[in-house]
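Exercise 3.2. Students should predict the tertiary structure of the chain below and write it as structure tokens, then compare their answer with the key that follows.

Predict this chain's 3D structure.
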Amino acid sequence: MTILRYDDYETSSGRATYDADVVIVGTGAGGAAAGAELAEAGVDVAFVEEGSYHPTSSFNPYATESLPRLFRDAAATMIFGRPPIPYLEGRCVGGSTTVNGGMTWRTPDRILADWERLCGPELGAAAMEPLFERVEKSVNASRQIEASLGEDSRLMEEGARRLGWDYLHTVRSQRNCVGSNNCVLGCPTGAKQSTLVSYIPRAIAAGARCLTEVRVESLLIEGGRCVGVRGASLCPRDRRTRRPVTVRAKAVIVACGATQTPALLLGHKLGRTSGQLGRNFLCHPNAKVLAVYPFDVKAWQGVNQGGQVREFVADGYLFAENFIPPAELAASMPTHGLRAWEIMKDYNRMALTGVLVEDSHAGRVTRGLGGQPVPQYSITPLDHARFLEGIRKLAMLHFEMGAERVYLPFSNLHEVTSADELQKIGATQRSRSTLELFTVHLMGTARMGASASDSVVDLDGQLWDLPGCYVADASLFPTAIGVNPQITIMALATRVAQRLSERVLSKAA
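Answer key:
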């Protein structure tokens, strides 16, 4: 059986045990890309995924059903700091690619130049180019057809044109997307090329197995080398009954994401050589700006995100439209209760947009009770200033396009009804604590590098202080990248897999 579930782990010995050449913890952008590369090269691959397998036919727009099924902690996860920042993380086959917008921006050249300076030519533009091309082909990275764009995308593009701002149409991992705008609860048509419908099927076709509903709790280490993982499968019906699971392998790839990966590795007191494990936590924070127009926008009729305003990238931020289903939108509003209910009556006239700020500093992830990650991050005065300026300019774009009111992401300034009122932002927003942020782009906690003194893994993705253990997710990023990270994750994971397959297959020969 290729996809295993809780009921498949019942054994007479009390512990289900499997063997593979490589075991991969996680099936998101990094784990799935690495697994497909390895399996197609002839390596025996076993994925271990904490979440369940949900086929495309099971996806629907109902948040009360979808959030507990597809997201970690039903999407109630938090970064502690000033201000606290809610974040989302997929917990299902496909990981966060199943519940993201499918943006496929390459790592900017200026970032790759920094990486080449920090790490060497292996992470420079010339070396990364074939990796980008390979993963873009795998997920069919392509422009949206005009018919799939929503009115909110057209408003953003026209507003940018009127103001003389640079606007780029989004490149997404999609095939014949019709703009159903259910991306964040699982694409109901299979058009979005998440790893659920791209890399995972390829890996399985090449012989890989996928052990779902298993949380990895520890690494198997023998003779100073990583030789597998141990975990347990929780009964999906009561979430209490446990069935122990062990997978032994020649190598382990940890691809749990930028919070779960360091939490797992810190449990073995790894990363001591540099002291960098869990540090360099980056989150590309996002502030929502919601506009209500005097006419129907019906942003739910169109793709989740059609483009981005890139005019202010040199200043450290960009704008994007990002419409979402009503339950999620209501939860992201700066007000609650009856007032939020009244505002939501104008759902058909809304356009939801965001200011994304490139991190100017880093936070940290530590390991808490029960091995759970504790992410900590506070924005700097510089990033606070970037948010205030970006929010003001984005609201100005909406008023330029005729919005009758704009809701701002401040706990003490919810609504403005004219461009003149935007002057209140500078006068009222002295404290970072009044800013309401959100993120889905977590990066950097097991950084890749050329020296054991300042990084967690080498340029092949292997931990400096634990042979046989590799990382292949956003934790690898040496620095912030300022754009959606999916393609960068897949490219680095592909690099890790290519290097590892050479080692595994050479030993087998």
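Discussion points: The radius of gyration is 22 Å. Residues 1-73+88-140+184-281+443-509 form a domain with the FAD/NAD(P)-binding domain fold (CATH 3.50.50.60).
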